[in-house]
Each structure stands twice: as C-alpha cells, then as structure tokens.
C-alpha cells in the first residue's frame, strides 16, 4: 500500500464531499465568490472532479505500483489548473 497516495485520496474524498454535497465553496481559493455566476454548478464541477481523482488515487494506493504518486500527483495538479482556468473564464463575471 502506498500511504502518501492513500492519505491524498482520503483528503480529496473529504474535499469532494464538502464541496460537492455540502456546497462549501468558501474552501476554494483563487477566485472571488461574489463574481461567480453559478455557485451550484461550481460546487458540482469541483466536487465531481475531486471525487473522481480521489477514487483513482485510492485505487492507485491499493495497487502499489512503484512510483505511482509521481504519475498521479501531476495529473491531479494539471486537472485542477485546467479547472481553475475554466471557472475563471466561463463562470466568473
């Protein structure tokens, strides 16, 4: 078992629950919440992405492939950067 990957997966799954289900968008940084047009769509989008990447990391932690965190962490970060770019261009007034 890859413990750093498992810890990151648990954090992402908690993050997905707080953002996607509880709609706690104040946790997100990098934008002004008052300027976001659709808070509900933002919460669903970020929550769903966090859920998917958390599940992938959880599976990757159980598989115990060598150096899997060196592959999954950059994919996660690139995905979040793309998501921030999308939110700031399409969802912010």
Automatic annotation (TrEMBL):
GO terms for molecular function: exonuclease activity. It comes from the Bacteria. The chain crosses the membrane at residues 6-21, 42-65, 71-89. Pfam families: DUF3784 (PF12650). Keywords: Exonuclease, Hydrolase, Membrane, Nuclease, Transmembrane, Transmembrane helix. InterPro entries: UCP037672. This is Exonuclease. It comes from Oceanobacillus chungangensis.
């Amino acid at each position: 078992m890859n413990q750093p990957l498992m810890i990151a997966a648990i954090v992402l799954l908690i993050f997905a629950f707080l953002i996607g289900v509880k709609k706690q968008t104040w946790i997100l940084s990098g934008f002004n919440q008052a300027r976001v047009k659709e808070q509900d769509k933002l919460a669903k989008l970020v929550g769903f992405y966090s859920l998917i990447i958390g599940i992938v990391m959880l599976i990757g932690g159980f598989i115990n492939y060598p150096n899997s965190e060196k592959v999954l962490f950059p994919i996660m970060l690139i995905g979040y950067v793309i998501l921030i770019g999308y939110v700031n261009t399409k969802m912010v007034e």
